[in-house]
Amino acid sequence: MQDLIATREQLGRGHADAAEEFQRALATAQSPACDKAFLQLFPQDARAASAAAARLPLAGLPVSVKDLFDIEGQVTAAGSRVLADAPPAVADSPAVARLRAAGASLIGRTNMTEFAFSGVGVNPHHGTPANPADPATPRIPGGSSSGAAVSVATGAAFIGLGSDTGGSIRIPAALCGIVGFKNTARLTPLQGALPLSTTLDTICAMTRSVRDAVLAHEVLAARRVALEHRPLSARRFAVARTSMLDGLDLAVAQGFEAALRTLRDAGARIEEIALDEIRDLGAIQSTGGFTAAESYAWHRQLLDRKGDGYDPRVRVRIERGASMKAWEYVDLVRARADWIARVETALAGFDAVLSPTVPMVAPAIDQVAPGAERDEAFFRVNALLLRNTSVVNMLDGCALSLPCHVPGTLPVGLMLWHGAMRDDAVLDAGLAVEAALAARHS
Predict the structure, then answer these.
(1) Whole-prediction pTM value?
(2) What positions carry a catalytic annotation?
(3) Domain boundaries along the sequence of the chain
(4) How far is CA 322 from the centre of its chain?
(5) Which of 190, 331, 417, 425 has its CA at a distance of 20 to 30 angstroms from the CA of residue 179?
(6) Which domain of life is it from (predicted)?
């Protein structure tokens, strides 16, 4: 499937038309492939696909917006029913405004885990979009940015705007076989996006390629990415052994090892490190994490009024935040700062760390669908999906997930990650890694 930059080049040569691209994407968004992926479509936004927009970075091409973001005149419901009577937004969120200013045509609002509180992607209110990677078996798309991933993977959008608090961009990107980039949180504005954890939330996007991820980040962060384009032979990567390689599905283990072989064959230096600091996260968060405490602070009054309307699996995790004491929260902030310093010391000298994005391929929806009888399976899968990705959020770092599976098999994600403000280095390395992985199949 052609990426945004290639399509933009065709537009510039007169070999494609932005309005036609939008209509083609809209037809996909209305097709069975995107069933339950969109909560609302904006066919009228084709007006953005104009001659003027074609000269802008996003060239009038379709972009989807997670139901977490304010769009002027619309209610921001965050995949829930309890906010249906909330007042409409008085302005676009900065993320949406920046996409519009860059020439994006907004194609629609995408489905999501209610209030973004899960990596699985199921939604009892609006249904769960099926992962397009397997037409035979309805599989989870991953979450919380479930519809955003499906919109990109099917071709209904070139960019899927979403958020990442513990992996909500990278998990669905890995499971659906596309690219997801979680930037350093401070680089993109959180205003106008309904919060889950103000400490961990990151505004970011999914795309069809790493170069599109660079472009999307430049738009959302209003900054230029500095790329060195160094070859893999000039790069040094780490592989973290602790927990991140535990209990991998066979397909994930094979895909990850094959990717490492490809990168070594291309000259990359890859070293295994223990990174035992990851084991400390359990103790650091033993009294509750940022997400429960900070989401409860936002939801507590709404829960009093409309708690029965919440997804029970979401409500129970939010309500855990009610028991956290002020001193425990302060200790958590201090412990995180100390932990970040220790991890950054361990990663000094590496261009990035290489890990499987998630330890499994996408399970079938019916294994984790809403229902108390499947709660145990749901929470087990959710914990596994978040295990690797959430490390980067606690690090206040940046991470890129890109496909590393063999064509014709279920998607497997390779995650490149590092500490805060290493975004350009991670993206630069990602371009080289993506090229090497593509070359092995050419």
Answers:
(1) 0.97
(2) 66, 144, 168
(3) 4-283+322-439
(4) 27
(5) 190
(6) Bacteria
